[in-house]
Amino acid sequence: MTWSQLATIVALNIAGAVTPGPDIVLITRLATKSRRHALAAVAGITLGVAWWCSLTVFGAAAVIAAFPDALNAVQVIGGFVLVYMGIGMVRSARATFANPPSTVDEAAERLGSTGNAFRTGLATNLANAKAILFFLAIIAPLLPADVGLGTAFVVILAVVVCSFMVFATIATVVSTERVRRTLLRAGPWIDVGSGIFFTVVAIALIVNGARHFIGG
Q1: Which of 2, 28, 22 is nearest to 169 (CA)?
Q2: C-alpha 179 chain-centroid distance
Q3: How many CB atoms lie within 10 A of CB 131?
Q4: CA dist., res. 23 & res. 96, Å (int)
Q5: What is the rounded CA–CA span in Å between residue 14 and residue 211?
Q6: b/e burial code for range 95-123 (CB count within 10 A of at least 16 → b)
Q7: Which residues touch 63 (CB under 8 Å, ≥6 apart)?
Q8: Any idea what the Cα angle at residue 193 is, between residues 187 and 195, rounded to 5°?
């Protein structure tokens, strides 16, 4: 693999990372309330990225994609996970409407532990089965037929590092004290919007996966 090919993979991955999706929505939602929780979610999301990228580099993702039923099942399961998370966000919004936090610190406390934010970030990334197809599209065509461990390590490291940097930058910018104070009252509306977004993405995944089972 040449440096230009690696740079192409990194550039395409950055473009995909900044495209609005469940990962970006989750990070933004948490960042408007707590930088620590947002960065914890970023760590979880990055671990998910490492998982999908590793599967792609070592060929497992190609095997999954070659068997439509397996990919469809992953989409349906992931969709239900995102639905559950979306409903949780809407419920959180209802509770916040009924009892709004008076300070940004109180809003952060209501998010629970950073460990929970990490797990939520990981679950959000892993639940989006389209990541398999994304990494297959940007990585597989540029990999040599016989990928050595050294090349595999470099590709995975490059993708993971650039993903973390993109997500961490977004979390840091959005979570400034000024932004959090400005958006304090908008918190429940952000939760509602995030919940709806997660649910819409989830329904799309479930329908896309289920229709192949029904049609096939």
Answers
A1: 28
A2: 22
A3: 24
A4: 22
A5: 31
A6: ebeeeebeebeebbeebeebeebbebbbb
A7: none
A8: 100
**Look-up: residue for tokens 């797990």?**
119
* 174 token code pair: 């959005």
Q: Give the number of C-alpha atoms closer than 13 A to the C-alpha of residue 77, restricted to the C-beta side.
A: 11
How many CB atoms are closer than 10 A to CB 153? Answer: 12
| Two structure tokens written together for 216 | 């096939």
Q: Which two tokens stand for residue 77?
A: 């399961």
Closest by CA to 175, choosing from 93, 105, 110, is 105
Q: What is the pLDDT of residues 196-215, one digit of tens each?
A: 999 998 898 899 888 876 76
In whole angstroms, give the CA distance from residue 141 to residue 120: 31
Percent of the chain, pLDDT > 90?
51
CA gap 6, 143 in Å, rounded:
9
Compute the distance between CA of residue 167 and CA of residue 45 in angstroms, rounded to an integer.
9
pTM beyond cutoff 0.70: yes
Q: Which two tokens stand for residue 22?
A: 């469940």
